[in-house]
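If you are new to this repository, start here. Below is one unmodified record pulled from the training split, so you can see the exact layout before writing a loader.
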Amino acid sequence: MDSQDEVGSRISSISVSEKSSISTNDTECGRLFETLLENIGGIGRYQKLLMAFAVLPSFFALSFIQSTWLFVTASPQQHWCRTGIELNFTKTEQHLLLPPEDTSCLAYDFNYSSILEQNLTASEYMDKWNTVKHNLTTTACRNGWNYDYENGQMGIAEEWDLVCEQSFLPTLAYTVSGVGGTLGILVGGFMADTYGRKKSYFVFFFILLSFGIAAAFSPNYTVFIVLITLQTVATNPLYSIPYTLGIELITPKFRATFSVLLTICFTAGRIGFTGVAYLLRNWRILVLVSTSPFCLFFLYWFCLPESPRWLFANRRHEEAKHLLKRIANVNRRHFDEHNEDLYRELTVHYDTARRVKKKETSWVDLLRGANTRRKLLLQMYLSCNVAVCYVGLNFYAPSLAEDPYLGFFLSSVIELPGSLLTEVIADRLGRRLTIISCLTLGCAACLGTAALPVGGDTYAMQFLTVFLLAKLFMTSAYTVQELMIYEAFPTEVRTKGVAVTTIVSYIISSFGPLITHFRGTSLALPMLIFGGLTVGGIVCVFFLPETLNCPLPETIEESEKFGKNLRWKDMWRFLPVTKKIKITSVLK
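And here is the target side for that same chain:
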């Protein structure tokens, strides 16, 4: 390997043309790596094959598995007290044996078997019942419940009678599992930045599958809630780690496309699960069928690479060089002398940055610099703002259709045009203008529901149409702001920074479903609240720097410089400016 003096004599500067609004030398490591990556293919055969057969399918699998619990923990649409009389009663006759004010949770304080005689038919029993039912008091159900499975399935509520006084338990299971999700965000970010993207991914995938399959054999509610909480520890890391790996393996101009394809695969998983759930109405079989086939994903161990950026950041330069040569070979590019020079320059930059640091980096380092602290807080606020509206709309959608499967299907399908909208404009107008435009249109759609004339045969259809428009624009805004988060944090703490932002938005987004409960007061009230919340997100974007076509920052120092001198006129400049960027060697 050449000495540092030889590298300095052979490399003076590297020029690249980028669309960017940041000043020269802001992100040397990032620009050097982007140039090297572009030289060996950028988005060549290697990246396309990896994305098509490994990274993107992982999002399909995660979405498919995650969707399971929404149906498993759903509350029964109809249930009523069981009388204990085993006769051929129709559903109407069963309800006539119960108090008319509440057949779901109340029965008469009466021994229904006392008037049962041998060879008595259902209609004869009803005749005798009509003579004795007067002036009876009511009591809680004593013999369990009957359920209507016509439009639903047998979930944990039906199997373990989690209704009436215990009706909160299915929702509690879904909520408590969020504790595991929060823990997973913390642990996932630490593991991915400390032990690498690849190893961390397969550790969490093993957790997801093992506890998911075990949950299908839960003997009771307590065991079930423990198992799904442990499984949920893996869900957020299994989303953020492949996302990070994909972003770090492609050049800037393809990041928006990758983000859109990711969203499409995630949506496809939800749509595919709807069909499986419709066919399999038993929750235990559904969990097994939706989880166990993905054990085949462990075969990806032999083809999924480590992130070359992470290898450089952790001084594993030879491994990074070996991987880059393999990428160049598959992409039919030569790792020539010029690329060797870029590689040596990169090692010097990373080693220099490493020597300057006195200790290992953590997400707390993002709070030390004024600029990184400002961007972190703004990203947190924007993420919370968009997430609470996006999650709230997701929960609101199923209630707009009588059939829960149709409601879930519609709420999933509408995300496809939202993702395609992102593909069309995010790389042309920039991240900031895309988010502002989509949030503005989404806000208008949400507020527009209040202007619809209430009542009439067309009100429900009009409301659904405007709602779907709001969901479409909010999906696009959510996709782009998520991409901005990954583009803003430096490689050495990227997953940790994403984890901290996700934790805050994950907690705040839980208010979205709570807001939807206001529909009992007015169908449009939750939409008005969501529309009002988006205004804050629109204002927030003005204070964030544009990340379109900008190299990913590699170190905390580079992240601190990026967007540091954001002027007022820059806040109102949405279309990126083309500049000639020159990267000067630190050894010159």
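Two things worth knowing about this chain: The chain has a mean pLDDT of 79. Strands lie at 13-19, 79-81, 106-108, 138-140, 145-147, 578-584.
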